[in-house]
Amino acid sequence: MAPPIRALLLDIDGTLVPLGRTGVSPAIVRRVEQIRAAGVAVIVATGRSSFVLGPRLLGTFAADYYICANGAEVVDAEGRRLSEDRFTEEEVRLLTAYCEREKLILAFPFEDGYGIYTGYEDYLAGAGRPGETRRDPVGEGPYDGWVKNCPGRDRHLTGLPFGAVIHGVPEGHRFPAALAGFQFVGFRRGSFDVYHAQVDKARAAARLLEKIGVPLSCAAAVGDGNNDVPLIRAVGVGVAMGNARPALRQAADFIVGPVEEDGLLEAFDRLGL
Question: Whole-angstrom distance between the N-terminal and C-terminal Cα of the chain?
Fold first, then answer.
């Protein structure tokens, strides 16, 4: 008999919130409140940085803990930072020089938003894809005010970033061995989350769950992206949304409906929550 679920980890984009939209549906908010009231720890595990947490993106949804920037940030419900992993100044310079040379869009997530170090004009032009609506290089959605041009490339001098996003990468592009200290995880065609090789949602979740006294075997996770694969494999039960990437669908224990149809409600039912 499987152990009872004592912690639930949920991705944001494509899981809690449909791509290009904001706000978690009222039905999911109500159900999550019931799950929390029953004593299950609810943890958001997202590639987004912590500055997006709050009503602008999540509406009235609230969790107990937030794993952000693919594990580089962990904060509690009050926003207190429990752990962090930041790039060094040398790593910022290395990625900036590479993306400038390759003519790629490069954005770094800081506490207050994303700073674009290279390719800002391409970002304004629609991320290099003529005819398409301009999109935030760090993902879909109305994030005006969160994305800033940094022509001086010095924003990191007042606080180092938690990772990076590279956008506009050609099909078949190979990142060089000089960048082996990073991992590059694609989230849509030509776009990659960049974070340290030793960082991911699964490692951050393991540390957090140990802190709150919950074994990984008693945790369930739901996601849709490539950056969710390690987490889905690590927990007791891993669930893929119906809109999930092929690698995530293959890693999951079962698949539910897509985010547009509130597939999370099906996941909660099947998990007995």
Answer: 16
- Residue 153's nearest CA partner among 112, 117, 109 is 117
| CA pair distance 50, 33, nearest whole angstrom | 21
Dihedral sign from CA coordinates of 238, 241, 244, 246: positive
pLDDT along the chain (273 residues), means of 10: 88 90 92 97 95 87 96 95 96 97 95 92 65 46 72 95 94 93 92 94 97 96 96 97 95 96 95 94
Per-residue pLDDT at 248:
96
Q: What are phi and psi of 254, to 5 degrees?
A: -160, 165
| pLDDT reported for residue 139 | 46
> Which residues have CB under 8 Å from 259's CB, separation 6+?
14, 15, 16, 17, 18, 19, 224, 241, 242, 243
Q: Would you state the pLDDT for residue 143? A: 54
> Would you state the pLDDT for residue 205?
97
pLDDT at 246: 95
How many C-beta neighbours within 10 Å does residue 89 have?
11
Total H helices, total E strands in the chain: 8, 14
CA angle, residues 173, 175, 180, in degrees to nearest 5: 160
Among residues 211, 250, 242, the alpha carbon closest in space to that of 224 is found at 242
| Whole-angstrom distance, CA of residue 55 vs CA of residue 155 | 26
Cβ neighbors of 65 (< 8 A, separation 6 or more) are 41, 43, 44, 74, 75, 76, 77, 82, 208, 212
Give the number of other CB atoms < 10 A from CB of residue 211. 12
Lookup: tokens for 75? 């904060």
Question: Looking at residue 146, what is its pLDDT?
Answer: 80
Residue with structure tokens 């930041």? 86
